[in-house]
Amino acid sequence: DYIVVEVANNILGDNWQPKFIESVKEGGIERVLL
After folding, report:
1. Cβ(22)–Cβ(32) under 8 Å?
2. CA distance 30 to 17
3. Rounded to whole angstroms, what are the CA distances from 4 to 14, 20?
4. 23 and 32 in contact (C-beta within 8 Å)?
5. Do 21 and 28 meet the contact criterion of CB atoms below 8 Å apart?
6. pLDDT at 11
7. Which of 12, 19, 20, 31 is the most buried (most CB within 10 A)?
8. pTM of the model
9. What distance in Å separates the CA atoms of residue 31 and residue 8, rounded to the nearest whole number?
10. How many domains does the chain have?
């Protein structure tokens, strides 16, 4: 996995990816990352 994914798993827990994907669909990747 990418190091970013590993860090996110540690900070946010293993369930962050579905929520992240939903956020990207709703608001676009720029808004999620900022």
Report:
1. no
2. 16
3. 13, 13
4. yes
5. no
6. 78
7. 20
8. 0.34
9. 17
10. 1
The dihedrals phi and psi of 12, each to the nearest 5 degrees, come to -100, -10
Q: How far is CA 18 from CA 6, 11, 12, 14, in A?
A: 15, 15, 12, 10
Domain that holds residue 16: 3-33
What Cα–Cα distance (Å) separates residue 2 from each residue in 6, 7, 8, 26, 27?
Answer: 7, 9, 10, 24, 23
pLDDT tens-digit map of 1-34: 578 888 877 877 777 778 777 877 776 666 555 5
Tokens of 13: 């827990």
Are 9 and 17 in contact by the 8 Å Cβ rule? The answer is no
Q: Which two tokens stand for residue 7?
A: 């860090």
